[in-house]
Amino acid sequence: MSPVTANLHVQQNQPPGVPPLALTGERTLPDVPAENYWFRRHLAVYEWIAERVAGLRVIDMACGEGYGAATLARSAASVLGVDANPDAFEHARLRYVKPNLSFERGLVERHGQPGAYDAVSFLQTIEHVANPEDVLRHLRGLLAPGGVVYVSTPNLLTIAPSGAQKSDNPWHVREYLAHEFRGLCESVFGSVELYGLYHARRLRLHEVALSLGWDQIHRRLSITNQFYDLFNPRIRAADFQLSSRRPMYNALDFLAICQ
After folding, report:
1. Could you give the 3-state DSSP secondary structure of residue 202?
2. Average pLDDT for residues 138-156, to the nearest whole number?
3. 156 in helix, strand or coil?
4. Domain ranges (residues) in the chain
5. 98 secondary structure, DSSP code
6. Which of 51, 99, 131, 181 is such that its CA lies 20 to 30 A from the CA of 211?
7. What percent of the chain has pLDDT over 90?
8. CATH homologous superfamily of 3-198+242-258
9. Residue 51's closest CA among 253, 258, 242?
């Protein structure tokens, strides 16, 4: 990989004193142009949850770079972001400084104070763990009475090739079908509501264009790179939509609301 190409996969324009993170595939990052689609896809779910945790005590497990915990802190009374990776932790604590936001290094299987949180977010990580039931039981134990755990994961059917048991992401241990993910969550929680994440607005229009043969057109005109160099940076969180009413088989990701 050339230095120019490598720089496209490192965070750009970070505040003074904040070490940029490199894109490894383990976590998504803001400020990496090549990663904008995935960042906005994950951010859309954080923003949806942020609307539902106003005034609450929240712990964001496996918080990664910290952008999600910072998003939740816009409305929550307090947010604790937890991640085991030392580089991600150092970056997060230096970049996202708010009175109601803090970060700690720790393992998702162990960290947190039992009964101390009104909401737990655990997004795009359960596919990384070999002991998902144990992790979910630990997260349940962190809840105060009436609390909620939000868990998201990619849909096997839309992340992996047809018929494959898993995508080629080396960080993923297991990827789930909708009924498998629901069953996993229901094995620990008494109430589970499942949502799917779908394309909306400009991404939905792009899907329609692809169904009408846009792939062949841009290749024939030799404008593929030019088009997507313009299109991808313009993707926003609003170009994704959560729904509990659409078919789950073609959702991009699943979000379980567990109590």
Report:
1. helix
2. 98
3. helix
4. 3-198+242-258
5. B
6. 181
7. 84
8. Vaccinia Virus protein VP39 (3.40.50.150)
9. 242
